[in-house]
Amino acid sequence: MNTLFFFSINNLNTNFFHLFFYVILFLVIEMKKVLIIGSTVCDIIMNLDHLPVTQEDVHPYSQSTRIGGCAFNAAHVIAHMGVPYSFISPIGTGVYGDFVRKEIKKQNVDTEIFVEGENGSCLCFVEKGGERTFLSMHGVEYSFDPSWLSKLDMSEYEYGYVCGLEIEDKDGQCLTDTICHLPVQFLFAPGPRIMSIQSERLHQLLNHGVMLHLNENEAKSITQTNTVEQAAEKLYQKTGNLVIVTAGHKGCYIKKEDAFWMGSESVNVVNTIGAGDSHAGAFLAALAQGKTLKECAEFANSVAAKVVAGETSTLSNEDYERLKNCR
């Protein structure tokens, strides 16, 4: 009996020591936050056989209204993977603002930026095969005010995310200047309108040394090169920082001091809306958790593959739980 009691006390002391150790360890290496700046949008999605040409009538076979936006899609992954974050995403008024305000709560993604003026919307055409085409009417969701960051302690943040649409828009120069003065490593995803971004803003960000996230076409267009490898090398020489180039079923190409391809699983593509955004968000989530670049690339590819295989631009809670359990 005395011996049993002795072992119980020893076990209790050992367990308490382990618990104390892990609490101290957590406090010392507490994960820093990710700062996400950008829009949350009402997507009106039409599924159709092909895009109409001038004067042609086309009948979509389905239509739906969903919450989306580049920054929201990235934030959705970061939030649901348990990474601490702040989402600077202005929400306005009108029918689309009301929709976004209601739906963002359902998605368990937090923003505290509510402004006057109407939200716009994005009309998304999805053809058979999954490729998408956007017609966007911008509202206050693409605005930016540096005062929105005034209550944040920037020492708590290590990484950030911003996309090209906000840089191109009316407050883009202010946003560019702000990013270049923050002590945060930003992942910049210029998007398909990369050639429309004002050159002085684009070069300011590249010279600042942002991390880059582009797809194959965007990378080749901005660098006037013929291969992903050439494009990534040219961009790296400009920024001196991480370059991520997605390439559909081929996976993604990573360039920093070293370079490598990370292949992706083969899936049946249903809808490509949000695939690149989710890839960027997943990469940042893994980076914030201290994963290696290869682990980040593998995880981001896995998330993007699940997105394109589904009908929505974001994953379900069940999908995220499965992803957590597989890591």
Structure described in brief:
The chain has one domain: UDP-N-acetylmuramoyl-L-alanine:D-glutamate ligase (3-Layer(aba) Sandwich).
Q: Order of helices and strands, N to C?
A: HEEEHEEHEEEEHHEHEHHEEEHHH
Major sheet, described briefly? 8 strands, mixed
At the fold tier of CATH, the topology name is UDP-N-acetylmuramoyl-L-alanine:D-glutamate ligase
Q: Indicate the proportion of strand residues.
A: 15-25%
Radius of gyration using CA atoms only = 22 Å
Distance between the termini: 44 Å
What is the number of E strands? 14
Spans with pLDDT under 50 lasting ≥5 residues?
1-9, 20-28
User: What number is the mean pLDDT?
Assistant: 90
Please name the CATH architecture. Answer: 3-Layer(aba) Sandwich
Q: What's the CATH class label?
A: Alpha Beta
User: How many separate domains?
Assistant: 1
SS summary, helix count:
11
Question: Class by helix and strand content?
Answer: alpha/beta
CATH superfamily: Ribokinase
Query: How are the strands of the biggest sheet laid out side by side?
Result: 4-1-9-10-11-12-13-14
Q: What form results from the Cα inertia axes?
A: globular
Tell me roughly what share of residues is in helical segments: 40-55%
